[in-house]
Amino acid sequence: MSMAAEDKEDRSVATLERALAILGTFEISPSQSLADLSRRTGLYKSTLLRLLGTLEKFGYIGQQDDGSYHIGVAALHLGSLYQRWIKPAELINPALRALVEETGESSSFNVQEGDLRVCVYRVDSPHKIRDHVRVGDLLPLRRGAAGKVLLAFGQERDDPAWNGLRADCFCFTKGEIEPDTAAIAAPVFAAGGVLEGVLAITGPAFRFSDDKVESMRLPLLRAALALSRDFGGRTEVLEAAVHRAQQAVPAA
Q1: Is the confidence at residue 126, as pLDDT, over 90?
Q2: CATH of the domain at 59
Q3: Exposure winner among 22, 106, 125, 137, fewest CB in 10 A?
Q4: Taking the C-alpha atoms of 28, 139, 87 and 236 in order, what is their torsion angle to the nearest 10 degrees?
Q5: Last residue of a domain, one of 76, 111, 131
Q6: 162 and 42 share a domain?
Q7: Whole-angstrom Cα distance, residue 122 to residue 143?
Q8: Alpha-carbon distance 206 to 194, whole Å?
Q9: Strand pairing partners for 201?
Q10: What is the pLDDT of residue 66?
């Protein structure tokens, strides 16, 4: 490759990085002026205007009547493609809605992305006081119930430290993401025993008493088992966990 071609390629990469930096600022604020974007990216307004024009042309940026900018519809389309790559909403969302109806708390489906986990689907609790994780939020992999299940059945599946969690197919944490929130989580499997993702139930820690957590264990495990069957996954370990949870339920 000639020096001129290499220089052109380097400029193209730099332009792409700047465009991605612009999109990243909208996590801070959903609506921004040109001055806001310049301050947050460190780019000159003239450079920003050229980049914003291209992003708007392809639908990744929109402009409001007052001149401020917002994320465009093309970004939403990319998000929907990511969700479809994980698994179709028509399988996961009904399971999440059923969990919310049965437990009264928010439910979500989470997957691993590098050293983080991402909330791919979520249904909110009807309570006014609830945790406020959103679809697309990235959270620590090593903190919180969903992250620990991802580790135990994923990249650290051979670590004996997770044997108890793997046997129970269940994890409960309190105050690991935020001091006043709690969560329970269970794995969902695809074909070949591969971990597809994690179902989680989350909410304010004060509502996650020991009795409440135990009352939510069986519905969560049953939902994880049903989804695993829908995905064609191996279910022996979840079936055993469901059986143990049923045995633990006091007789009426």
Answers
A1: yes
A2: 1.10.10.10
A3: 137
A4: -170
A5: 76
A6: no
A7: 19
A8: 34
A9: 107, 184
A10: 87
Amino acid at 9: E
Neighbours of 212 (CB within 10 A): 17
Q: Give the pair of three-digit tokens for residue 218.
A: 């069986």
Q: What residues contact residue 222 under an 8 Å CB cut-off, 6+ apart? A: 242
In a shared domain, residues 30 and 96: no
Average the pLDDT over 108-114 and give the result. Answer: 91
61 — phi, psi (to 5°)?
-135, 145
What value does the CA radius of gyration of the chain take, rounded to a whole number of Å?
22
Average pLDDT over residues 135-160: 92
What are the pLDDT digits (tens) for 209-249? 999 999 999 999 999 999 999 888 889 999 999 999 998 87
Do 184 and 200 meet the contact criterion of CB atoms below 8 Å apart? yes
Chain position carrying tokens 């000639």: 2
> Using 50, 70 and 90 to split pLDDT, how confident is the model at 103?
very high
Residues 214 and 116 in one domain: yes
Domain containing residue 63: 3-76
Tell me which residue has tokens 């519905």: 219
